[in-house]
Design brief:
single chain; alpha/beta; Glucose Oxidase, domain 1; two-stranded antiparallel ribbon; 4 helices
Length: 202
């Protein structure tokens, strides 16, 4: 079985505008101290990460309260471009597992989020740093997170064919946190095949 890493490297990752960039400090070195020790600082929404409902819902679940079964299991990768609305999501959902990853330069609209909120999908993944549209990203998050649909953001899917995979994208156990970095990988048993949703900018 082939393992495909779809995670950004943290210290060179994309950062959402306004968030801090990840940094590290080597506080101990082999040359001086006979061992290496590193401190790091980052925003929990840097790089490839998930959003917990607590990110936008006042009484929403934090990272440590999420059902871990969401982050492992069958997933569907669908190619998209532009604005992904209700009709594009309807096409994607025809053959989609509970975990749906949107490959390509696309953004989810409110209508697309509402369509997902009425579906069986438990996790929605995108390559951009935010699942929401650029004009009003908050509304898309709220629509999804109110239904406990978890956004998985900042994926790297350019070398991934559309089709079916096993996804593993577990968060760090951060009590009370509104998000967490993940190490996201796809496990390919040779079942990938063409799956495209036609989304275009209005």
């Amino acid at each position: 079985m082939k393992v495909i890493d779809i995670t950004q490297e943290l210290f060179s990752c994309n950062v959402y505008p306004g968030d801090i960039s990840p940094t590290f400090e080597r506080v101990k070195t082999i040359e001086r101290d006979k061992y290496n020790l590193t401190n790091i600082m980052f925003c929990v929404h840097n790089g490839t990460h998930i959003d917990a409902p607590k990110h936008f819902i006042a009484d929403g679940k934090a990272i440590h309260e999420l059902d871990l079964s969401v982050f492992y299991g069958k997933c569907t990768v669908v190619e998209c471009a532009g604005v992904v609305g209700e009709s594009e999501i309807a096409v994607a959902l025809k053959n989609s597992h509970e975990r749906l990853l949107l490959k390509g330069d696309c953004e989810l609209s409110d209508s697309g989020a509402h369509a997902l909120a009425k579906s069986h999908v438990r996790l929605i993944g995108v390559e951009s740093q935010s699942v929401g549209n650029s004009d009003n990203p908050i509304s898309v998050h709220v629509i999804l997170l109110e239904k406990d649909i978890i956004p998985l953001e900042g994926l790297r899917l350019s070398d991934v064919d559309a089709g079916e995979y096993l996804l593993s994208a577990f968060p760090i156990n951060l009590e009370g946190s509104d998000g967490s970095p993940v190490r996201a990988v796809l496990l390919d048993a040779g079942t990938a095949g063409k799956n495209v949703c036609d989304a275009t900018h209005p």
